[in-house]
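Q: Entry one of two.
A:
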Amino acid sequence: MAMDESEHERLGMNRPIARRSFIGGVAATGAGLGALSPLARASEPLAAAGAGPALAPDTSTYPPVRSGLRGQYPGSFESAHAVRDGDLGADIAAHDTGEHYDLVVVGGGISGLSSAWFYRKALGRDMRILVLDNHDDFGGHAKRNEFHHEGRTILAFGGTMSIESPFPYSYTAKALLAELGIEPRTWEHYRREDTYKGLSGGVFFDKESFGRDAVAPGYGALAWADFFARAPIRADIRAELTRLYTAKTDYLPHLDPIAKAEALKRISLQDFLLGPAAMKREALPFFAGMGFRNNKRVDTCPAYEVAHLPIFDGMEIAGQIRMHCDEFHFPDGNASIARLLVNRLVPGALPGVHDQESIVTARVDYTRLDLPGAPTRLRLGSTAVHVAHIGTVTAATEKAVRVVYMRDGKAASVTAANVVLACFNNIIPYLVPELPDAQKAALGEASKVPMQYTNVLVRNWEPWRKLGVRSLMVPNGYHTRVGLDYPMAIGGYASATRPDQPAIVTMIRNPNQPGLPRKEQHRAGRHDMLATPFETSELEVRRQLQRMLGSAGFDAAQDILAITVNRWPHGYAYTYDTLADPDVPEAERPHIVGRRPFGRIAIANADAGAAAYTNVAIDQAERAIGEVLVSRGLT
C-alpha cells in the first residue's frame, strides 16, 4: 500500500524514536565488536522495570539495546550467501591465526552453546573451545531485546520465546536446565496474571474482509455463540462460524476413530472446512491469519494436527497426543538460557553463578567473551565459510580440521581436533563440500520457517484496557498476532503493572504465500522478508496499531517510543507433516541422513531433530558430542 505525505505525518513516520540511528542493526557511529572499549559497569545488574534511574548501556558495546532491524540483520548473512553462491570457497586466502582448539563450534545459538557445555562436561573445564557466530550477539533465535525509558529497563523476546513443547522434555534437556538453575515448574510463582484482570483474547476484524474495522473481545473466553453474536461480521458468516464452533457434528460418520485419524492426516484444514464441514468459502478469511504448529497455515496444516479445535468436538479421533512439558517464560524469552550457558562457559563475561532469577537483570560484558587464554571463547561477528579435514585423519590426529571464517571483511583460519556444526542445515553442504552427495541433498531438503517478531515500546497500554483485550488474532493482517507482553516479576525485574505505564506490544508476522506448497510458501516468505526494509515494517506497525487501537485513543505518532524488528528469514527448523512429506522409515528421513557424522565433523542444531524447540536443540547437541567422542576413540 502506498503512503502519502499526510499519512506519513499522521502516523509519526517523521518522529524521532529508537530505530533510525542503526544501519543493519549496528550503531552507525559505533565501532565493530572486534574493537570494543570496556563496557562501563558491565558486571552490575540492570535497573529493573519500575526502579529508579540507571545508566543505559551503550549501543556500540551492548547488542541487546540495539533497535531497528535485528534478528538476521544486514551484515550478518552476506558471507554465508557468498559461500552459497560460490563467491567464497576452499581457495580463499585466509590469515592463519595460529590458534588451535580441542573443539570449534560453528553457531552460538542454544544448540552450539550446549555442545560446548556437553564437551566440557565430558572432558573437563580446561578443554580449549571456540564458538563462532555470525551475529553481533549470541543465542541464535533466542534473542534479547532491551529498552530503556525514563530510568526503567524493559525486556522483550526477539525470537524463541519459552520453554515449551508438545512432548515431554528428555532427561538430557531437563538435566541441563536443572544445572543452569532453571526449574520450569516454578513459572506460576512469577506470573502476574492479575495485571490483565478482565482482559481477554480478541479478534480484529478488518473492513476489507468483514465489512468494517472492529475489535471483538472474548475470543476463547466467552461461549462461542456469544462471541460470534457480538462479532461485527455479516450475518451469513456469523451463522457459519457459530455452526462450526458449536454444532459438535461428526463430519466423517462413516469412519471409525482410526480411519478418521488417517483421513484427517491427508486433508488440509482448509479442504476439511470447505469439504466435509461444508463451510461457505466466504467464512474462510476468519482462518487465514491462524498460524499452527511450525507456522503451517489453513491451506497447509493437516486437519489432524488441529483436531483439538472446537470444530472437531463431535468427532472421536484416535491417537491424539495430549502430553506437554512443563512451561516457563523469561522476560527475554529463551535468551536467558543462552545467557546462563555463557555464564558457565565464559564466566569472565558474566561474573558469579547465576540462576533463573539473577540472570534476568545481569549484564554481559561483551568485551570479555573472546579473551586470549580463556578455555572457552565466544567470537561474534564471525561467519564460517569453509570447513575441511587436514589430510588423512586418524583417531590420534590432533590438528584434524581447518575452519575458515570471515570477520570484519577479512578471512582467518583456526584448527581443531573436532568441529560441531550448530548452524543451519542448508548452509552445511557449502561449508563442507567434501560431504557425500546424498548427505548434501538431505541437508538441503527442508525449508526453514520464516518468522518475524516485532517489539514495540508504547507509552502506555490504556487502549488495550479500554477495548478489553490483552492479545489479538488478526486474520489477513500484516502481523497476524499482536499482544501485550507476558505479565511477570522475577529476579528484581517486573513488567508493567498499570495501564498508564510503558509496555511492550509484540507483533508476529509470518510472510507465507497462501496457495503455494508449504516449502514454497516458506521460500517466498523468506525472499519477501529479505527484500523488506525497516521503513516498510515501521509503516505497517504504525498503520496496524492505529487501525486496531485508534478507537480507544491510541495515537501512533505520539504513543510509539521504539520499534525493534527481529526478522528471521531463515527461521525455525522444518517439521514434517502428513500432507507435504513422504511417509518413509525414520532412518531414511532427511534430517537423519543429513546429520550423520563425517570424520571429525558432527552436526548439532534443531534442524537435525526436525523440530523447532529448545529441548530438541539441546538433545541434538548432546548426540553430536557423543559422536565427537567416538571419532576420537574416547568412548
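Q: Entry two of two.
A:
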Amino acid sequence: MLSIRSTLEITTALLLAVPAWAQMSVSEVPQGLTIQGRIIQPDGLPLEDSNVHFNIKVLSPGAEACVLFEENRVVNMTNSKGVINFAIGAGEAGATVVPAGHTLPLHKILKNSGTIAGLASCAGGQTSYAPNAGDSRKVRVTFTVGSETVALSPDFDLRSVPYAMESENAVALEGKKAADFIQASANVTQNRVETLLLPANFDGLLALLNPSASSPTTGSIGIPSSDGTATAPVRDGLMRYDEATQTVQVSIGGTWQNVVTGNTGVGSSNIEDGSVGSADIADNAISGGKILNNAVTTDKLADESVTSDKLMNNSVTNGKIADGAITFNKIANGAISTIKIVDGAVNSAKILDGSIATADLANSAVTTAKIADSNITTAKIADQNVTTAKIADSNITTAKIADQNVTTAKIADGNVTTAKIADANVTTAKIADGNVTDAKIASVSGSKVTGNIPGNAAGFYGALAGDVVGGQSGTTVQRMQGRWVANVNPGVGQVLKWDGGQWVPQTDNNSGGTITSVSVGPGMWGGGSSGGVSIGLNNTGVGAGWYGNGSYVPQFYVDASGRITAVNNVAVNAGYASCGGNLHGRAWISSSGCSSATIAQCVNGSTVTVGTFSTGGSCDGDGDGF
C-alpha cells in the first residue's frame, strides 16, 4: 500500500494582482493550476515508477461535489525522488482533459459568479453549479501504479494566494466593473460618441425623443423645420418633417425632396428576409401589380406564410417568382389551387428540387394549362407525392412530362388510373426503362392499350380457330396436329389410338404371358417384374484357368451354394525311393499272375499292398498274366 508523506502544494497562475491601468487578457498570462508534492512509499523510499497514472479533479465545495474540471496524465517518475510538479489545464504533453459537460476554460470555473450548467457528474445528480460569494474549490488527486490505485484524502482546498485576493480590483475602475461601462467596438468609437453628443446634435436627439421640446436648428441630423425653410441640407441622407407641406423629406443632391408614398412596386431589397408572415398579408392583397418581377424569393417568406386567401386569382405569374424560390415549407397545405396560378406560370426553374409535397396542393389543382411543357422532372417531385387526388382527370399529356422522368419512386402505389391519363399519351420516351411495375398500375382499360400483349392471354377477346376452338371461357380441343379427335367418352384403362381416320379411345394391346416376375437366389444378380429381365452369377473372385500340374495339386473351397469361391495350389512331395520313385498316394500293379494281380500304393514313403484282383484269364505263355 502506497502512502503520501509530504504536503501537496497547489498554486494557480490565473489569479494575478495587476494595477488597474494594466492592459492584460487571459491569453497573455500562464494558464493552469500548478500541483507540487512528493510521494513516499511505505518502505521509506520515494516513488520512482516509470509509468504512474494521475487523475486530477477540480470539484465544487459543497456536498454536491460537481466535477468542474478533470484531467488524466501519465508521468514517468524515474529519478524524480518522488517529486511531482505539473500544471493541470495547461495542455502539457501526456495530459488528457476529460469532458465535464461544459466548454468553459479553466479560469472561468474559478469565478464565483453566474452558473456553470451542463455538468456531467455531480454527487447529488445535479447538472449545474451556482457558486456563492467566497466559495473555494476542492482538488481531488488519485494516482495508479500497476494495479493499485491510491486516492489522496481528504480533498485539498483550492484558495487564493495573498496577492491574488487583490487581483479582484484589477478588473474594476473605482469599484465599477466592465458591465458598468459602454464597450468600444467597430461601431462604437470615441469619435462617434463625441460627434453624437455635440450640442446641436444632442438637441436634435432630445427633440426626437420628446415631441414637446422646442425645435432644434434646421437640418440638424435630419430634425424637421416647422416653417418649411428652403435652407439647403449640409449633406445627403438627412430627413425632416415639413409642417408647411406636411410631408417627410430627405436630402438628396443638396436639396430636400419629398418621400413619395403610394402604389409603388416593392422589390426584393425592400423586404427583410423572413419578415413576411401569413398575418402580415391581408386576404386577396397579393396581386400581380403589387410585386416586382423576381421580388419573391425563398428568404423573403416566412414558413407556411402563403395561403390560398392571400393570393388574388391569377396573380402568380412566371415573372413574379425568382428561380428556385418556391419550397414546400413556404406554402401552407392546400394553398395552391388552379384559380391562383396564371396559365403556364409554373416551370422547372421556379421550383426547388423535391419541394412539392402532396399536402401543399389542393385537390385537382394541377391542370394541363398550369404547367409549362416538359417542366415536370423527377427532381421536382418528392418521392410518393403524386396521388390520384392531386391531378385533374385527363390532364397529364405527353408534352407536360420531360422524357425519362416518370419513375417508380415518383408515383404512389395504385394511383395511375385510366381517368388520369389522356388517351394515347403514355409513350415509350416518357417512361424510364423498368419503371412500370404491377404496384404502380391500378387498372388498364382496353382503350389505353394498343397492339399485342406477348406472353399473357388473360385479356383476349373473340373466338379461337384451329385445333383449339371457342371463346375464352369455353375452349375445346377438337384436333391434334390437324387430325380429328373422336367425340366419345373413354373407358377405364383405354388409350387414344389412330384408326386411320381419327384418334379414338381404345383398350391397350396385351399379348399375354404367365411370368410376372423373376427372382434370384443367393450368389446371383438381376431379376425384376417388368421390361427386359437379366440374371447371372455373382463374381466369386476365382480366376478362370487350369489348376494343378506335376508339382502342385489344386485345393478348392466350396460354399453352401455349391460355388467354388477359393482355389489354392498345394505343392506335392518328390517321389519316394522306397516306393520305386512313386509319389505319395500313387497306386500301381506291383505284381500279377495268370489269374490275378496285386495293387500297391505309396503311403508316406512306404509301399502298401492295397489288394489283389482276378484277371479273369489264363497265362498265354508270355508271363504277364494276360
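A: Comment on entry two: The helical segments are 162-166, 190-196, 199-209. Confidence is low (pLDDT under 50) at residues 3-28, 218-222.
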